[in-house]
Design goal:
Rossmann fold; four-stranded parallel sheet; 13 strands; elongated; binds beta-D-glucopyranose
């Protein structure tokens, strides 16, 4: 063997994939699920924005299965994508896949949900604590005065770090009221995988345990609110108990119009998806996009951006969700 070639061979073996100058980067987008309406919109907006910037996107969706999502990410790494954008099903289970991306020198952006204990490059999301504060704040302002209000709390998937942040925001509002004896949490539970049917079971269990005397159900998203409302309707309590939500799903906005759901939290997905596409393309090209915050994920302070959220009820549905083109007025009839 020609010994003078050795340094060259060595360089070829260890050099990071040299995509930094690529004009047409390839982005790997790994989604937990496409079940909820919002993720389809996230995907479509992200792909369109990335294509406009000259990138190609390979999309994988794991159907709420950790093993499958880790495999999806490993397969995107083996296809030599320039950057990974991940919505983890389980913020802790994705750590291993990020290690593989680090080894392959592929930057990783956590989208909407944080990946824990991992060397990720960016976290782009909405202000999730504010989402929880908006939900509980809305309910708290409308609870009966003069007696202890009775509320049920339905949290999201325990595997989703966001579910904990929503609860944290709700706690910020509710704990002082609970401590002051103004509010009693008569039942609470976590809805596995954010499934509406799990939320319905929690609501059924609440009614069985404490009866129909419930003032509000603080629910963390619209899908699970739909499950809880179904249980309330079956008990003849539809529209009689204040229910919160999040995502401005079409079905939830229709329920707000009809009066069976009180509020939702509108998160302008086009802002997040467009931002993420731009950051992904910039990162793939080797630049370091500016951020406005940091968040500790257990292993580092992750450069982050938190997009703003808007609390929506019947009074401002038209001036927010509809005015923004998220849903057509005609669809809400
Ligand atoms: C998202 C919510 C969504 C939920 C279930 C959360 O991480 O932030 O918008 O409703 O997951 O998919």
């Amino acid at each position: 063997m020609n010994l003078r070639l050795l340094p060259v061979l060595f360089l070829l073996a260890v050099a990071p994939a040299a995509f930094a100058s690529k004009e047409k980067p390839v982005i790997g987008l790994s989604l937990d699920t496409l079940k909820e309406e919002r993720w389809q919109r996230d995907r479509d907006t992200f792909v369109a924005a990335a294509q406009k910037l000259g990138a190609t996107v390979i999309v994988q969706s794991a159907n709420s299965d950790d093993i499958r999502q880790v495999r999806d990410v490993e397969s995107l790494i083996s296809r030599n994508v320039d950057v990974l954008v991940i919505v983890p099903h389980n913020g802790a289970a994705m750590t291993r896949a990020v290690k593989s991306a680090n080894d392959a020198k592929i930057p990783v952006i956590a989208y909407d949900r944080l990946i824990l204990n991992a060397n990720i490059d960016y976290y782009l999301t909405f202000d999730n604590v504010k989402v929880g504060e908006a939900q509980a704040g809305y309910a708290a302002a409308r609870l009966p005065a003069g007696r202890k209000a009775r509320i049920v709390r339905i949290y999201g998937a325990p595997t989703d770090n966001n579910a904990k942040l929503f609860k944290q925001g709700q706690d910020n509002v509710l704990q002082p009221l609970i401590a002051a004896g103004k509010v009693e949490v008569v039942h609470e539970d976590w809805a596995l995988d954010w499934k509406p049917e799990n939320a319905k079971k929690i609501m059924n269990a609440a009614i069985t345990k404490v009866g129909r005397d419930i003032d509000a159900v603080v629910v963390s998203n619209d899908g699970t609110a739909g499950g809880a409302i179904q249980a309330l309707i079956e008990e003849g309590l539809g529209g009689k108990v204040l229910v919160t939500g999040q995502d401005a799903d079409l079905a939830a906005c229709q329920r707000i119009q009809r009066g069976t759901q009180a509020m939702t939290v509108y998160k302008p997905l086009k802002n997040l998806a467009t931002l993420a596409a731009r950051v992904a393309v910039d990162v793939a090209k080797g630049s370091k996009p500016a951020t406005t915050a940091t968040l500790d994920n257990g292993s580092k302070q992750v450069p982050s951006i938190f997009e703003a959220i808007i609390a929506v009820d019947k009074a401002n549905l038209m001036s927010t969700v509809v005015a923004d083109g998220f849903h057509a007025a005609a669809a809400l009839k």
